[in-house]
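Issue 218. Parser rejects a valid record. Input:
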Amino acid sequence: MKTIDKVKQIIAEQLCISTDDISDTANVVEDLGADSLDIVEMLMTFEDEFNVSIPDEQLKQLSDIPSIVNLIEQYTKK
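Output the parser choked on:
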């Protein structure tokens, strides 16, 4: 499964929405209605699923799907 598909699946599960409702460029807060708690929980799930450790100061990077995918790919290469 590609990173973007897994990211969308995790977001869909967290927000109780369909992956079909998530565009490849969706903003997690503005388009999908996530709040700060959702974002923290998603970060923890991303870390578990992708076996990475993302510093808390990177939370602001989790704003849209491309940013999340880039961040995960950046940390999986380390």
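Fixed in the parser; the record now loads. The CA atoms of residues 27 and 66 lie 9 Å apart.
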